[in-house]
UniProtKB/TrEMBL annotation:
Native species: Amycolatopsis dendrobii
GO biological process: 3-phenylpropionate catabolic process
Keyword entries, A-Z: Oxidoreductase
UniProt keyword Transmembrane present: no
GO molecular-function terms, A-Z: oxidoreductase activity
A Pfam family that the UniProt record links to this protein: Ring_hydroxyl_B
Domain of life: Bacteria
Family: Belongs to the bacterial ring-hydroxylating dioxygenase beta subunit family.
Name of the protein in question: 3-phenylpropionate/cinnamic acid dioxygenase small subunit
Lineage, highest ranks first: Bacteria, Bacillati, Actinomycetota, Actinomycetes, Pseudonocardiales
Cited SUPFAM superfamilies: NTF2-like
């Protein structure tokens, strides 16, 4: 039997706090601050195959390292880009936190995300299972970083419309 890791573990609570801060930044479209939450080697991925863990060898909707995240944030915030000008307003809830592994260096955390996007009089619902690998900083929580974020959309194997926001 696998040992259950309580969400009350202070390391898990620290990771949950970072995931909640990330959700807040995304809903406020503070993309430059969001980008700073990632470690230099961090990966942001939205796979098409919900079962894969081989992100580098699979087709993904998004597979961003630091350089690609910077480019994505620039498209969302600079100049005239349809994604930025016609972006939706979002409110997301991240819940059902389940610690997968915990150490003094990092926590791997699974959760669920429900996102409501409002654009041009329409509401769209986006649902996903998330995985965050949070790397702890010896300097404390302000230095903690996302080393991996995986967004597994419930409908990833079907046609997904252009979002105009970050998941």
């Amino acid at each position: 039997m696998t040992e259950t890791i309580p969400v009350t573990d202070p390391r898990v609570a620290r990771a949950v706090e970072l995931v909640n801060r990330e959700a807040e930044l995304l809903d406020r479209t503070e993309y430059h601050e969001w980008e700073k939450l990632f470690s230099e080697d961090g990966i942001y991925v939205i796979p098409i195959d919900r079962e894969t863990d081989d992100f580098a060898g699979s087709l993904n909707m998004v597979y961003d390292d630091a350089r690609m995240r910077q480019m994505r944030v620039a498209r969302m915030t600079e100049g005239y880009a349809l994604a930025a000008v016609d972006s939706a307003r979002t409110v997301r809830t991240v819940s059902r936190f389940v610690p997968e592994s915990v150490s003094d260096e990092e926590v791997v955390l699974r959760s669920a995300q429900i996102l409501v996007a409002y654009k041009r009089g329409n509401h769209d619902l986006w649902a996903a299972d998330l995985v965050h690998r949070i790397r702890f900083s010896p300097e404390g929580p302000e230095g903690d970083r996302i080393a991996l974020k995986v967004v597994r959309l419930v409908n990833s194997d079907e046609a997904v419309p252009a979002a105009g926001f970050l998941l």
